[in-house]
Amino acid sequence: MSDLLKNDDIESINIEETLQNSYLDYSMSVIVGRALPDVRDGLKPVHRRILYAMDKLNLSHGAKYKKSARIVGDVIGQYHPHGDTAVYDALVRMAQDFSMRMELVDGQGNFGSIDGDNAAAMRYTEARMTKYAGELLKDLEKNTVDMIDNYDATTKEPEVMPTRVPNLLINGSSGIAVGMATNIPPHNPKEVLNALKALLANPSITVPEVMEHIPAPDFPTGGIIYGKKGIMDAYETGRGRIKVRAKTHIEQKGKKEIIVIDELPYQVNKSRLIENIANLVKDKLIEGVSEIRDESDREGIRVVIELKKDAMSEIVLNNMFKQTQMQTTFGIIMLSILNQEPRIFGIIDILKHFINHRKTIIIRRTIFDLEKAKARAHILEGLRKAIDIIDDVIRVIRASKTEDAAKENLVSEFDFSEIQAASIVAMRLGRLTGLEIEKIENELNELIKLIEYLESILKSEEVLQGIINEEFDEVLDTYGSSNRRTEIEDDYDDIDIEDLIPNEPMVVTITHRGYIKRVPLTSYEKQRRGGKGKTAVTTYEDDFIESFFTCNTHDTLLFVTDRGQLHWLKVYRIPEGSRTAKGKAVVNLINLMADEKIQSIIPTIDFSEEKSLVFFTEAGVVKRTNLSEFSNIRSNGVKAINLDEDDTLITAKIAGPEIQYLFIMTKMSQCIKFEIEKTRDQGRNTRGVRGIKFKHKGDKVVDANIIRDDEQEILVVSEKGIGKRTDAGEYRLTNRGGSGVIAMKMTPKTGKYVIGCLMVDETMDMMALTKAGKMIRVDMQTISKSSRNTSGVYIVKGDDVASISRCPKKPDEDEDELVIPPSAEELE
């Protein structure tokens, strides 16, 4: 082993440096050789090699189709030493009208669909180049680009295509390299060519001036782009984000509305989108949809979404935009290769590099044509000279023993060049006729003019630019009739679904079992003074209206759950129903977890910083958070309070500047009243502070309230149905976190526990639910008023009370139901 280590052939290397160098080599190979397009022709190596192989197979536009397998075989055999599947996938995409703005391959057979269907196997499909692809290869044979060795140096391939069209912008590109990615959107050919002409005319053109010609990307699948800021960012810096929406329209089917999807965002799979919408409808994350059908055909996309009678198309559509790929974000990264290096370009840089590429191509083409013209003119000059001395030329040729000797004799005797001598020796006698001699003269004169013109191109930048401009006009004549497919809408962020919905007064009813509905206030207004009144809701036998208030369609309901989660629901998202309808289960309108219960439903007209949301937990924790903290609405809600593992949220209340005190009631008849200012505002993601300290083991909070002033009355009810009204001033003011005072004198008559407490309101009754499932409505004004440390009177007899809550005032005997409820503003 020691002898081996002394061998001079062994070289010590640093493994870290070796790994770095090896990975860098690999990275650059992927970046330059596979994943990123060239800024000049917009092609990745695989696409360039496919087109070059098709050109070698004479598969130009108009030629007979050839099997795709033959094309793929030539590509991987001669130019692209990678898998045949990858090459065929690239060829298939080049033939898809929903992937390419201008297809490069004209495919015959099944080349896949927008539904995500795979193309047929390569042995079944056939292909040739499109007319547009021919523009990328035009003048390739005129030494316009460098030809480099293929992977095994057995043949040559073009380094770049001498394209006449700005393919990078027209067809875009996407690819993931090592440590970088590109995502260039497709554009309208006519717009890009007009922008190139504008840049030629004004080299100092600005991005806003370019956007007069290219206002935005133009996707092959259409759709609608919202907002121009992301486009401006991308065109200026090479990076930006644009929002793309499906194009839809609304149709009427009887009393129901139908949403029809006409166009999809770029690269969205139609069948997967329909499946996603169906699953969201099934999971009740999208409400109001009764049926989904795909009626698409060869004429175009038509996805029909039928709505239920009470569904508003604007709301359903907005939900689908938010939760599905009917709205996508296209992140633009205009990264491409220049001089074997990856760079991010703004749109003006891309246009300039294409013009520079065209200049190079035209100069090289001109040099090629000039050399060819000069070579032909040189031969014609020799022929003309030989015709003038044809007798002497014939004599010299006849005297020569061989053809090579004849050439040498012509060169030495008449001063012809070797090329001219070879042409003279090969000339047929028929060229000596008068007509043929005239043709030689005419051809020579034309060549002299051509040479002068070609030389002028090389001498004059102005002439060169004129040719580029003419070529752009030619391409425009061919491809300039393509109309824009993607529409553009301004100011996406300013568009709100609320702008489409009138802000009208509504009556919202919520039952004890959690059924909710809204009814226009006009359904009740005619009964405001006198009359029998109108039934507000038809409930189940074991249900009753628990909350009943007026608010506007743009107001918000806050739903607070026992797990401390807070959800929002705009009033206009509540299904509208008739006066007698039961409504819809609220659990179908917000995203609740399994076994999660709603503890409070709070209406609010705004999220003013002058208001607070106060939370009370079973373990005696209280927390106050500024209402403005909850203004940022999220579909899945937010964590409003951090609960201890064994704690549960009991209730939450909105407290305005007029609220003075917080009141907490425990199961074992403890209560505490303290100033609201004893709790400072805390952020959303906090636990809160101690509100009450329990005296008895096993005690817990059963209810809590906010108190405006000491003149308000508090109703306390025990488990045996004993209750009493007491002035808030009777409850001594203490410090937060103390044990408080006795709320009710507990006796065998009252039972061991307090069930809850309510703020007495002359517009509201108390509804008691017994353990046997009976419901008893009691006018709170009829309950005796007592001092704090007393028991009270029977409210419910014969059964233990399970829970109490407030409900709208019981109507008079000649009325059916409450007429006008309090407003959300009054409730706050």
UniProtKB/TrEMBL annotation:
Compartmental location: Cytoplasm
Keywords: ATP-binding, Cytoplasm, DNA-binding, Isomerase, Nucleotide-binding, Topoisomerase
UniProt-listed CDD domains: TOP4c
Gene Ontology biological process terms, A to Z: DNA topological change; DNA-templated DNA replication
Cytoplasm as UniProt keyword: yes
Enzyme Commission identifier(s): 5.6.2.2
Catalytic machinery residues: 124
Gene Ontology cellular-component annotations: chromosome; cytoplasm; DNA topoisomerase type II (double strand cut, ATP-hydrolyzing) complex
Iron keyword on record: no
Motif (GyrA-box): 527-533
Top EC group: isomerase
Ranges where the Topo IIA-type catalytic domain occurs: 36-500
InterPro entries according to UniProt: GyrA (IPR005743), GyrA/parC_rep (IPR006691), Gyrase/topoIV_suA_C (IPR035516), Topo_IIA-like_dom_sf (IPR013760), Topo_IIA_A/C_ab (IPR013758), Topo_IIA_A_a_sf (IPR013757), Topo_IIA_dom_A (IPR002205), Type_II_DNA_Topoisomerases (IPR050220)
Molecular function terms from GO: ATP binding; DNA binding; DNA negative supercoiling activity
Chemical reaction(s) catalysed: ATP-dependent breakage, passage and rejoining of double-stranded DNA
Region (Disordered): 805-828
Note: Few gyrases are as efficient as E.coli at forming negative supercoils. Not all organisms have 2 type II topoisomerases; in organisms with a single type II topoisomerase this enzyme also has to decatenate newly replicated chromosomes.
Subunit structure: Heterotetramer, composed of two GyrA and two GyrB chains. In the heterotetramer, GyrA contains the active site tyrosine that forms a transient covalent intermediate with DNA, while GyrB binds cofactors and catalyzes ATP hydrolysis.
Role, per record: A type II topoisomerase that negatively supercoils closed circular double-stranded (ds) DNA in an ATP-dependent manner to modulate DNA topology and maintain chromosomes in an underwound state. Negative supercoiling favors strand separation, and DNA replication, transcription, recombination and repair, all of which involve strand separation. Also able to catalyze the interconversion of other topological isomers of dsDNA rings, including catenanes and knotted rings. Type II topoisomerases break and join 2 DNA strands simultaneously in an ATP-dependent manner.
Database matches in PANTHER family: DNA GYRASE SUBUNIT A, CHLOROPLASTIC_MITOCHONDRIAL, DNA GYRASE/TOPOISOMERASE SUBUNIT A
Family: Belongs to the type II topoisomerase GyrA/ParC subunit family.
NCBIfam families membership: gyrA (TIGR01063), PRK05560.1 (NF004043), PRK05561.1 (NF004044)
This protein's name: DNA gyrase subunit A
Organism of derivation: Sulfurimonas lithotrophica
